Amino acid sequence: RIKTFIVYIITKSGIALLYNEETNNTYDVCLKLTKEVLTIQKLDVVCTRGSESHVNHRTVVLRRQAAGGLGLSIKGGAEHSVPVVISKIFKDQVGKKVNGINVEHCTHEEVVHLLRTAGDEVTITVRYLREVPSFLKLPLGSPGPSTDHSSRVSSPLFDSGVHLNGNGNNTAPSPPSPSANEPKYEKRWLDAVCLPLLMARVSRYKTGTDKLRSNCFEVFALDGASTNILQFCTAAESTDWLQAISTNINDLTQENIKIINKYCSSDDQIVHMGWACESPEASVAGRISAFKFLALRGPYFYIFRTPPISAADWGQAETTYNLYEVLFKVHKLWMAEDCWLQARLYLGLEHSPEQQDNESLCFSILVGHGQSHTFRVELATDLAIWEKSFQRAVFLEVQRIRSKSYMCSSQGNVLCFTIDFELGFTCSEGTSKTILWRYKFSQLKGSSDDGKTRVKLLFKNAESNQIEMKELEFANLTAVLHCIHSFIAAKVASMDPLFMCSQTFPGNHMNS
């Protein structure tokens, strides 16, 4: 029988901290990045020899003292896959039951709570160990960000004896010589989370806000699973990992685009798609930032809540716009490469966690009637890709439709205004189609509008060199102005040899 093995080549590995906001705990983790998967490994204690199910059980009764409590300390817990051990006073005993309750699979906090509330007389069933387990001598992980004393003493990484122990300075004497049949424990890196990177996303921001985290980010898989918060010692190290993960996500996206385009018509090709965080409009109260999946495909710009997986999903977009009637706008001055951003991070100029950064690495999609969508990306390279992809998608769509007509009016007459890639601007009567005037794109010298329905277009007469004004009224003036911009931008781009050479779809050559 032929067996198939999938081998994942590690492209990057290293140590980070994993912070869980719900538990407020931080642990050392090992990150392993491959082309398709990000794996998070946690340091754990495993039994490598012997069995943990030996008998050697005994039952003892303890009476709680007014001063000193039960006189014992415990260590370990189910959250680290190790038994709860009495680490001080009563040497070499493992607690199995407390007042008849089995605690073998209880967490550290649960056992501490049980001992504190067990009453004045506590019955404990213990198992004798001849060899001191390794986790009594070695830390299980990082103690976490908190320096609060109460959280330290209740952590499974430390002895919990302050509220239980009569003398915190008591230490167990050296254990008897180990037996070959006794369990042996070792610390090992074990896979805890494996996140597929196809359609995954990353975020440096606090959930639902525009506030940057310091040297931190999260990775979210397509199914919603996440890494929790990955923390790094320096901003440079955080940026390095963010770029590496983002690169693998983008590479997988491009491969997916090639597969889809291979089976689609030339008018339905995907130019680019990926995640971006939409910032709420200032006029909409109560809304928070939310991640959206954006796509430039064929004639449309799509906004999805979740990525489209099947062909039917493409019909389930939250919003769809005609490409030639929207305008792409980058916010603020930015560099095309992340070297500028990385240089700032190395120099220690990174943003503080509480700093508002509403304008950083953002772009807007301006649509008709003054509406707009503002999106934020994580890296300057992402912003560059979206800008170039949008220019390319609009160019291809203008090349496909070649002309677009809008009904308008002037001095009470119904007219037809046409924008044509070859001929420029043409205005004709609405019914007879008689041409009233025509100008090339190069003859348009200026324009002004009232922000509602009326626009004045200023053209230079080719023969007299005089400026001629044409005033028109449209039902959706913004869409018309954006369409004019798209056609002129496409006309200019068609004269750029470098731009024209780059006009091929991923996995499908464009016929020009």
Class based on secondary structure composition and strand pairing: alpha+beta
The N- to C-terminal Cα distance equals: 50 Å
Report the strand count: 27
Main sheet record: 7 strands, antiparallel
Helix content: 10-25%
Uncertain runs: 90-94, 139-157, 161-175, 333-358
Could you tell me the radius of gyration in angstroms?
33 Å
How many separate domains? 3
Q: What does the overall shape look like?
A: elongated
Percent range for β-strand residues:
35-45%
CATH architecture of the largest domain: Roll
User: At the third CATH level, what is the topology name of the largest domain?
Assistant: PH-domain like
Question: What is the CATH C level class of the largest domain, in words?
Answer: Mainly Beta
Name the CATH superfamily classification of the largest domain: Pleckstrin-homology domain (PH domain)/Phosphotyrosine-binding domain (PTB)
Strand arrangement, largest sheet?
10-3-2-1-13-12-11
Tally of helical runs: 7
Mean pLDDT: 79
